[in-house]
Amino acid sequence: MGIKVDQIVLRHIRMPLVHFFETSFGRTYERDIILVEAIADGVSGWGEVTAGENPFYNEEWTGSIWPLLIGYIAPRILRHEFASLEDVGARTAHIRGHNMTRGGAEAAIWDLQARLNNEPLWKTIGAGARREISCGVSIGIQDSVPQLLQKIETELAAGYQRIKMKIKPGWDVDVIRQVRQRFPGIKLMADANSAYTLHDIDHLKRLDEFYLMMIEQPLAHDDIIDHAVLQSKLETPICLDECIRSAHHAEQAIRLKAGRIINIKLGRVGGFAEAKRVHDVCQENAIPVWCGGMLESGIGRAHNIALSTLPDFTLPGDVSASKRYWKRDIIVPPVEVTPKGAIQVSDAPGFGYELDTDYLESLVVRREVLR
Fold first, then answer.
1. Considering only CA atoms, which of 187, 191, 211 is closest in space to residue 139?
2. pTM for the model
3. Could you give the CA distance from residue 270 to residue 227 in angstroms, rounded to a whole number?
4. Taking a C-beta distance cutoff of 8 angstroms, is the pair 306, 127 a contact?
5. Average pLDDT for residues 272-281, to the nearest whole number?
């Protein structure tokens, strides 16, 4: 069954975070988010471009998304007859990089097709291996260790099954030691966001004493080879994030033994079709995966929930409750986590939640309608 998009509406919204979020890239106090609404036969599907406000995680940022969608992506999508949803990503594959922008548009069309079929998005993508997903949290770099310990205490009390803490040089070994002393039995991982090099091998080897679940992307954002060298020196599993942008990258990393776990982010790989391919490569090679987050609004969060019901998502992901980030989300009800640290999967059509339309419109900074 084919699909043809008649109209695309772009919205730039600005949402203040409940608390600043700091990584090795810097601090974020509010999110500028681009939403893509794809319309066909009077029905709307929604996607979220998950790039940040600055080109630090990858080459994309809020300012680059708008002209790319208007000038290159929308013209290739509008009025084109897609025989299959798998063809949507291929339609813009000639664009170098910018997977998050392409993926936001692609996700909107998958959501649109789910709504046209009157079925949940997880069913449209061929998932549904579980009726609830296990949740962890990502905790940014704090002003002090006591502040970090208090945040971990709060999240554990809320039921979250895994704690991920951001690290960088100067905020790593000694901080993790204090976390482990306070919480000796929790599932704990560290995310470096490419803050180290191979010159730091001896320093990173010190992390082995803390029996971490994994250390995420310790080396360069575009590197696989050096990660293979580092993994051979560490007992702690390396999880690859930024450097895995496609199923081919996943195949290369697995062949080189560059890591033992892969984080799949929907935007980073360009949408659902490629995310499924990455998932399948990992599953075939017994590499567990989990779903990473990019401080998404409720739309992107709901997409991550659907993605996480694919069978190889066996580790708790970064999909957490709306209230961790937003005083008010743009979906109703907000995403909620059960006391045992899980999210129930919705059977409602599309991404599974209603839009809080009035609140969403109050956040719009600019809008563009493309026909």
1. 191
2. 0.95
3. 23
4. yes
5. 98
299: part of which helix (H) or strand (E)?
helix 298-307
Number of Cβ atoms within 10 Å of the Cβ of 168:
18
What's the CA gap between 172 and 165, in Å, rounded?
9
Pairing mode, strands 3-4 and 354-355: unpaired
Phi, psi dihedrals of residue 314, rounded to the nearest 5°: -95, -5
Alpha-carbon 16 to chain mean position: 19
Average pLDDT estimate for 148-153: 97
Q: Which residue in the list 166, 168, 233, 327 is annotated as catalytic?
A: 166
Distance CA 83, CA 114 (A): 15
Measured CA to CA, the distance from residue 98 to residue 102 in angstroms comes to 6
Which has the closest alpha carbon to 10: 58, 49, 40? 49
Out of 164, 168, 265, 276, which one is annotated catalytic? 265
Catalytic residue status for 340: no
Separation CA 324–CA 303 (nearest Å): 17
Assign 48 to helix, strand or coil. strand
The verdict on whether 276 is a catalytic residue reads: no
The residue with greater pLDDT, 1 or 327, is 327
Distance CA 264, CA 144 (A): 30
pLDDT surpassing 90 at residue 262: yes
Question: Rounded to whole angstroms, how far apart are CA atoms 193 and 342?
Answer: 26
Spell out the domains of the chain, with CATH numbers in brackets: 3-118 (3.30.390.10), 124-354 (3.20.20.120)
Q: Which of 325, 330, 327, 322 lies closest to 358 in space, CA to CA?
A: 330
Q: How far apart are the first and last CA of the chain?
A: 22
Q: What is the spatial order of strands in the sheet that 188-191 belongs to?
A: 136-139, 162-166, 188-191, 215-216, 238-240, 261-264, 289-291
